[in-house]
Amino acid sequence: MWGNYSTLVLQFLCFFLSVNYYPNLASNDIQCMKTKCNHKDAPTIQYPFRLQNIQPQNCGKIGYDLSCNENHQTILKLPNSISFIVNKIDYKSQTIHVTDPNECLPKLLSNLNVTSTPFHFIDNSNSNYTFFNCSSMNTALQSYYSSITCLSSNGYQVYALNSTLQLKDVSLTYCTKLYDMSFVPEDVVFGHGDDLILGWDISCGNESETEHECYNNVHKSKGILFNHFFSPIFFVFCFQFFETLI
To answer: CA 179 to CA 40: how far, in whole Å?
Structure first.
């Protein structure tokens, strides 16, 4: 009686592993393979990023979701409905190069709180700025400061003044304060760079380890003992067990 019962249990375990465990391992590996949007310049997407609505959530980390727009460009969405076009992802240096679809990064950054994201600014020339909308009648600022072209228009200019300045020494006649922007890169504010470079920090404990290897090691760590030791032994056991039943 007990012999028949144990035989049934072993048959069930072997069958369960053969139809569930091994196919699932293969399926996870396939679903989390490197991918990209269908654009000639699209960057490769891999851990810690994932392609939203295409790859399952376990392929990446929270906050690292990417998507493809109607033009097949890679899109990074951040809080406050901010969407960047991703031009480059460097997994070795852990940096992502993004730009504004409307080509006005200073405007987009006015709503960005980078501390609420898993990213940080790379540029070391970060400062605090106060933005002013000034009528063209204010000629004093025009003489000393460059306006931000993409925020300005006919009849007025927008200026970003370093908040460390003594604003009382600056002529702000015909000006209206717009907003403050804290600890942002100077090149982005004044349009000297086309891309905003953001960094991320995910340590795998091995400096020579690539991010894809990091994914493989972290994602499979829970099953590594079974995969490399018990799994082969159990597979051979099941094979020999079924041979005895034939």
So the answer is: 38
